[in-house]
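Re-running the complex after MR caught last week's input typo. The corrected sequence lines follow. Everything else is unchanged.
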Amino acid sequence: MSFFEESRRIEALVFILFTLYPLTLNFFFGYFSMMFAFTLSLFEWDILTPMRFVGLRNFYEMFLEIAKGFHELITSPTLVYLREPFFNGLKNILIYTAMVVPVQTLLALVLAVIGNQKIRGSHFFRVAYFLPATTCPVIVSLIFIWLFMKDGFINYFVSALTAGFKPDWLNDPNFLLPAIAIVAIWGTSAHFSVTFLAGLQALPREVYEAARIDGANAFNRFVHITMPLLKPLITYVVVLGTIGALQMFDLAWVMAGSGGGPGGAGYTIALDIYNTAFIQLRYGYAAAKAVLLFAIIFTLNYYVQKKLEFARVV
Amino acid sequence: MDKGRSVYTLLYVFFAYTIMSILALIYLMPFVRSIFASFMTWAQASAYPPQWIPNPFTLENYLKLFRLSYFPRWVLNTVFVSALIVAANTVTASMAGYAFAILRFPRKELLFSALLTLLMVPPFITLIPNFILVTKLGLIDNLLGLALLGSASVSGIYLMRQYYLSFGKELFEAARIDGADPLKSFFYVALPLSKPALGALAIYQFLGSWNAFLGPLVFLRSVENFTLPVGLNFAFSRNMWTEYTPIIAGSLIASAPTIILYVLLNKYMIKGTVVSAKKG
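Corrected-run output:
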């Protein structure tokens, strides 16, 4: 055997040695689990009794629930959360996503632009803005429950600004979801501002110099140079934010409770999957719901990875 | 510079500082308010309008936490799981990242993209099967089982691979010509150079595992095995304290390590985000 072949063989051996554990672990708990979930979605199973093949009945039941939910939304909207929890979760998470994503993207952009100013002390401000992103969402929610109390800190300012209007954020079905959205925006805008900051710092300086010489003011430079150059990054943050929002679990779990709080206003798909699996012990049906969520999120993710060719932020 | 220009600049700076401070206040307020309230009695912390100076100043909230035998357990559990996950990931990610970046192997790129694709998979699809698998492995309600699941993260491997690729192949080819086998070149060339990347990796893994909620919630069963986020939420929802101030104090203790780490190391963390946000 030649020296060349020998070294190739050693390299291959070391490669196997170095990657065997991560590949086995991730493929087992990733791909195998995924196939298991797809299979499981065709069964009815409570772990204790043998699995029972039901074909597409879980999916049929799920779509029936969505259809019935639409019907009830028109006829008796107050009972939707009791009768069709999955539909209620779907409805809430769509409203929630529509509330959170635009605001968090805009705020993150503003924070990044402000943090990118070459001003003394901007480092301190950057640290301050990112701090919420380092803290656990559950812990943050626990603190916000206290801040959102009827006679709490937030209402002190709300009532001052609105001349005495004091919503009972967490016990009023109309205000529960907005309250959760506010906490989410507070945390995720901080997180995404770093992504924008990185993007801003990578922008070519020459273009700005040229525009300055041509007499463009700061506002024009932002609208005509920064925004177009940042467009791919904005799309990236919007899609990633949507993916995160659709899977929201921790905030709802803590702030609304596993049942979704008053009027089921804080119920989400993620909570419903958890409840269907671990409370009702209908693992097959829960898997079918997870497959639907998977289809939506995988498609979005695929779009980001392929179209924008941006690697995911760790 | 003429006078009009400098007035304009001054105004601009003033305006910028005002907006920056208002935003900083909004983003820091929940922490600041909690720190003050953690030294108050519940009666004072829930007073309306809000009060700021603790009167009487009390450490009772913190003492209450540590009088409860569960709370110190939760802290230890979280430290234990996070330490295991950070340690396991620095080993697995540096080795696998090096292998995927430098070593030649048939179908290597295919294997790597198969691994990366897993990043696109939402956790909820694998949650139920993994729960069943972990149960069958006998690792349910076991902190080791939790650490096992997080012991080789794909994002960590990706980060390390990007880092090794950034050196260029020449460095490792030179080592090869000098007679270093792949193992030697890993231990004597790659590892000594990877301190900054390993640091970023460790920080991110620590943040992730310290703050994790869904995993611990599903895979842990008994109260003494809980991690801090699960435990505090449990304490809150079971009304273990009738007043709220111990929860606030507990929340501060739970978030202190990640906040301190961030304040000390934010330069490296932002750099790490920049590195991994670049085109892959």
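None of the earlier attempt is carried over here. The mean pLDDT of chain B is 88. The longest helix of chain B spans residues 3-37.
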